[in-house]
Design a protein that fits this description.
- The chain is of the alpha+beta class.
- It has a domain at about 1-85.
- The chain has helices at about 1-5, 10-15, 20-25, 35-55, 60-85, 110-125, 130-145, 155-170, 175-210, 295-305, 305-310, 365-370, 390-400, 420-445; strands spanning about 215-225, 230-240, 245-250, 275, 285-295, 315-320, 325-330, 345-350.
- α4 packs antiparallel against α5 (about 60-85), α7 (about 130-145) runs antiparallel to α8 (about 155-170) and α8 (about 155-170) packs antiparallel against α9 (about 175-210).
- The N and C termini lie far apart (about 50 Å).
- The structure holds zinc ion.
- Zinc ion binds near residues 8, 79 and 83.
């Protein structure tokens, strides 16, 4: 259990709710990488081996030690796999590949996973204190499902029935069958959530293309509502020429039974959003939208070190200006953009230096490279960033210079790189990802 939660020990140095920027960049940071997960498994193994040797007066049998090490590896690595399943993301392949990866298919605290596994865990645990604590976790999860507005009455009822069934199964099955049932339940929950999310992603993608065939779909962020594999929360990120647009929606994986408009309530988005006028269907209900010139985001990144650092985490940027020299920048996934979200940072012009940085590739960097595009008119640019025509000019020069080489400004892909020189390729790729963002910014300041 310690090993499975070891990656989250980063909370000891990132804090919770302290410095937002440090938290965004370093929670699910280095400790959530394959390299450190394996190192962590060795560390716990070494401690366990030493304690056993100290207490028993002799080293544990070699077979036991190997089994323990294998179990600890599975534990720490499974943490990364499970964190990957939601829309928060992980970057497990550092230092070779610093990109974020998002599973977009399971809610970040999914009560069905507790229902599937906690009763079996209670039966398998010998310590009475642990059994009581585990039972309390399950009861608290069920109580929360009934109390929060994010979980409807139908989903809460199904969850409670599922919990009763899971307890009955755990009490009647033998030890092996119990573990297998819990594991199968866990996989079934993940599969159902993944299937619902894939359906929602497909519906959103088709709807965007049907509404505006010229718009470029940059990203579709999908997250199921808790305890619900049918209702999904969707954020669509688009670019239409020089305009960047974010639209939030709710989707139903089974529209014949569940209308998307009745899937929970509209997600809380920052004040910059307004009600969307897009035509909704039973499968997809559009809630709110917001757009701004792409060049504004490039401008924020160019002018502020804090913005550049935050964009190494922010997947769906939204921003608002508070006067000529200050802006709020946040992530729509967490209600950001208006200054009040957990991911919102205050950005000031001319902040050349800041303490916090991390190697993660900014999720929207490739879009921004093309984003400061040549069709930005000075009239479309916020007065708070009057210097932006210079950005647009630099981008125009770069676009004409790279005409005919559409890959010239995209991050290098190792698989398309130098064959037979993997080590070198990996190194170049890594260096490229790390510095590409800084090159982008320096290009903007040309
Ligand atoms: Zn984690």
């Amino acid at each position: 259990m310690i090993a499975a939660n070891l990656p989250d020990f980063d909370l000891f140095y990132t804090g919770v709710g302290g410095d937002r920027l440090a938290y965004m960049l370093h929670h699910r940071g280095y400790t959530h990488t394959v390299v450190l997960a394996i190192a962590g498994a060795f560390l716990v193994w070494g401690v366990a081996w030493s304690i056993r040797r100290w207490r028993a007066g002799e080293a544990p049998p070699r077979g036991d030690a190997r089994w323990l090490l294998a179990l600890l590896m599975v534990s720490t690595l499974s943490h990364l796999a499970l964190d990957w399943t939601n829309s928060y993301g992980v970057h497990p392949f550092w230092p070779i590949d610093d990109r974020w990866y998002y599973g977009d298919s399971v809610f970040i605290v999914e009560p069905w996973l507790w229902v599937a596994s906690v009763p079996a865990l209670v039966m398998a645990t010998r310590s009475r204190v642990a059994r009581v604590l585990l039972s309390l976790v399950l009861i608290a999860g069920l109580a929360l499902a009934w109390l929060t507005s994010m979980v409807g009455v139908g989903a809460a009822s199904a969850l409670t029935a599922g919990a009763i069934l899971s307890v009955l199964l755990a009490r009647t099955l033998g030890a092996d069958a119990r573990v297998s049932a819990a594991f199968a339940g866990w996989l079934a929950v993940t599969g159902a959530m993944g299937a619902g999310a894939a359906t929602a992603r497909g519906a959103a993608t088709r709807a965007v293309h049907a509404l505006d065939p010229t718009a470029e779909l940059l990203d579709v962020v999908v997250s199921p509502l808790p305890a619900n594999a049918v209702c999904m929360s969707v954020i669509v990120v688009e670019r239409d020429g020089a305009t960047y647009r974010v639209v939030t929606a709710r989707a139903s994986a089974i529209p014949r039974i569940a209308d998307a408009a009745r899937c929970g309530t509209a997600r809380g988005t920052a004040t910059v959003f307004r009600a969307s006028s897009r035509p909704s269907t039973r499968a997809l209900h559009w809630d709110s939208e917001w757009s701004a010139p792409v060049a504004e985001l490039a401008g924020l990144a160019r002018e502020s070190c804090v913005a550049r650092a935050a964009l190494r985490f922010i997947r769906v940027p939204a921003w608002s200006f508070a006067g000529d020299s200050t802006a709020h920048l946040g992530d729509v996934r967490f209600g950001g953009g208006g200054g009040g979200g957990f991911s919102d940072v205050t950005v000031k012009r001319g902040e050349a230096r800041c303490d916090v940085n991390a190697p993660w590739v900014p999720p929207r960097s490739a879009d921004m490279v093309r984003g400061a595009g040549g069709r930005v008119s000075s009239g479309a640019v916020s007065p708070a960033l009057r210097e932006l025509p210079a950005v647009a000019h630099a981008a125009r020069r770069r676009e004409s210079a790279s005409a005919g080489q559409p890959d010239a400004v995209r991050p290098m892909n190792c698989r398309r790189g130098v064959r037979g020189r993997t080590g070198c390729c990996v190194f170049v790729s890594r260096a490229y990802y790390s510095v590409s963002w800084d090159i982008i910014i320096s290009q903007e300041t040309l």
